[in-house]
Amino acid sequence: MSGLAVPEGARARLIGLRLERFALGGAVVGLTILAAILSPAFLTAGNIRDILTQAAPLGMVVLAQALIMLVRGIDLSVASVMASAAVLATAFTTTNDADIPMIFVAVLLGGAVIGGINGWLVTRRNVSPFLATLAMMILLQGVRFAYTQGAPSGLLPSGFRWLGTGQISGVPVNLTVLILLALGLGVMLRFTVLGRSIYIIGGNPRAAELVGLSAQRITLLCYCLGSMLAGIAGLFLVGFVGTVDNWVGRGYELDSIVAAVIGGVSLAGGSGSVMGALLGVLILVLLSNLVVILGLPVEFQLILKGVIIILATGLYARRTRI
Predict the structure, then answer these.
(1) Would you say 51 and 285 are in contact if contact means Cβ atoms under 8 Å apart?
(2) What is the spatial distance between Cα 72 and Cα 166, in angstroms, rounded to a whole number?
(3) What is the CATH number of domain 44-321?
(4) What Cα–Cα distance (Å) separates residue 155 from each residue in 97, 159, 238?
(5) How many degrees, rounded to 5, is the angle at CA 286 between CA 279 and CA 280?
(6) Measured between alpha carbons, how far is residue 215 from residues 80, 193, 204, 205, 220 in Å?
(7) Which of 136, 156, 158, 206 has the smallest number of Cβ neighbours within 10 A?
(8) Phi/psi of residue 194, each to 5°?
């Protein structure tokens, strides 16, 4: 055998990844065809554009969740970070469009602090990711309600409406930003030392430490980046919705996990891709639309998501036993 031959294990993983992407792509195509058969108006350009515009903020927060899941983490605070970003945007600015860059800077800094606290609790204090981020979710909710007294918050600059619903040459602005973020994250994960380190740490943290990688430091960084992405997602979501309240993004903590799991991001860490995560978003959005098209109760969406999480958790438990 040549010294350049690909190891059998690596070849098997590569084949498995390609098959997984093929299956996800096939699921997207199949669900789209089914939706078009049930509702001929589904495939109109306007409807597709509306669906993608609505799905883009979810795609951003799924990128955040996937990044954290790659290092064996989970973040239940992402939706609360989204809502907090929206409230923060109204707390420190006026309705002047010139303030938008300052809003983004403030949200990025706030996200870095929140993610840093989550990461510190997980890596330095050995708190489980579930409990650490659940505590952060509750803390942020309390801070928001204390600040706003439970009422809707102030107004955002009108430019945010364009960020949430506007178009560039027919392509939604928020979708364009999602694509750029996905490309950046994908390049980082696939072609940089940091990206490879993330996969190694997620796959085997102890082995990573033995080869000189700081699992704690890189995991902390992933939590920081995840919260920053969640904050950005919150700004684009509030731009789409058009109003700011304490519950902006509610439910996205579950949706982001479900979409990432559908897209092949492992709850056990070390496995998954940006492309798979985004395909998971499309599948989840298509399933939600099919529920509406079929006239099923909206609660059925929660049932679907719960079943997906149960199946994924069962698979994770089986793998860890093996």
Answers:
(1) yes
(2) 36
(3) 1.10.3470
(4) 12, 11, 11
(5) 20
(6) 26, 13, 10, 6, 8
(7) 206
(8) -60, -45
Please state, in angstroms and rounded to a whole number, the distance separating the CA atoms of residues 50 and 52: 6
| CA 8 to centroid of chain Cα atoms | 32
Buried/exposed 50-82: b ≥16 CB within 10 Å, e otherwise? ebbbbbbbbbbbbbbbbbbbbbbbbbbbbbbbb
Within a 10 A sphere around the Cβ of 148, how many other Cβ atoms?
17
Q: What is the pTM of this model?
A: 0.91
Type of residue at 170: G
What CA–CA distance (Å, rounded) separates 120 from 8?
38
Please answer whether residues 232 and 104 qualify as being in contact, where contact means their C-beta atoms are separated by less than 8 angstroms: yes
Q: What is the pLDDT along the chain (322 residues), one digit of tens a residue?
A: 444 444 455 566 566 667 777 888 999 999 999 999 999 989 999 999 999 999 999 999 999 999 999 999 999 999 999 999 999 888 765 666 668 899 999 999 999 999 999 999 999 999 999 999 999 999 999 999 998 887 766 677 778 889 999 999 889 999 999 999 999 999 999 999 999 999 999 998 888 888 889 999 999 999 999 999 999 999 999 999 888 888 899 999 999 999 999 999 998 899 999 999 999 999 999 999 998 898 988 888 888 888 888 877 776 556 554 4
Find the radius of gyration of the CA atoms of the chain. 20
* Buried-state track 83-114, b at ≥16 Cβ within 10 A, e below 16: bbbbbbbbeebeeeeebbeebbebbbebbbeb
**DSSP type of residue 172:** E
